[in-house]
Amino acid sequence: MASRDQELAVKYLNEAIEGGDAHLGAPISDIGHAYALHDPAAASEWAMAFSDWWIREPAVAGVSSAWRASDPVAASEWIATLPQGDSRNNAIYNLVQNMRNADPSSAFVWASDVTGNDDERLYLLKVATNAWASFAPEEARAAIDNLSLATSERDSLLARLDRR
C-alpha cells in the first residue's frame, strides 16, 4: 500500500501507533521510504516528529534511504540538521553507503561525523577509505592524517591504502 498511496499508508501507520502496536519497525521504514519517494521534505518532518525512538529510528532510516538515492545533496542537507544520536548516525550510514563510490571524499567526511558509536564510525571510515584508495590514495591519506583518530584507527585506515 505504501508504494501506491503514501498518505493512506501514513494515516494507517499513525493509527496503529496510537493504538499501541509495537511490531511496526519494518512497516515504518517501508512507509518512510515510500513517503520520501513522493515528498521527501514532508516525510522527513513526519519521521522526526515521533518522540519514541522505536518509531523514529525506522522512519528516519526509510526516509534517508529513499532520499539519498534520489537527491543525495538534499539528503545531506537534511541529515546535517538532525540532532546527534542514533537517527543521525543511521542516516549517515545510509548516505555513506550510497555515495562512497561516486564521492568518497564526502563519504569520508560524513563517516567522521558519526558520534557515540566508535565502531560504526570506524567501519564507515573504512568503507569510504576503501572506495577512495582506488583512485585518489594520496587525498585519502591526507584526510586520514588530518582527522583526529586513535593511533590504532589511523593505522587501520592507512593500512587499507597500502594494500592498494
Describe this structure as you would to a colleague.
The chain is an all-alpha fold. It is 76% helix and 0% strand.
Tell me briefly what this model is.
Helices cover 76% and strands 0% of the residues. The protein is an all-alpha fold and 164 residues long. It is elongated.
Largest sheet: none
Percentage of residues assigned to helices: over 70%
Count of individual beta strands: 0
Low-confidence stretches: none
Our estimate of the beta-strand percent is under 5%
Rg from C-alpha positions? 18 Å
Give the structural class: mainly alpha
Distance between the termini: 46 Å
The DSSP helix count reads 10
Report the mean per-residue pLDDT as an integer: 86
Helix-strand string = HHHHHHHHHH
Shape: elongated
Which helices and strands appear, and what pairs or packs with what?
Blueprint: H1 6-18, H2 25-38, H3 40-48, H4 53-70, H5 72-81, H6 86-99, H7 104-111, H8 118-133, H9 137-146, H10 151-162
What tags apply to this protein structure?
single chain, 164 residues, mainly alpha
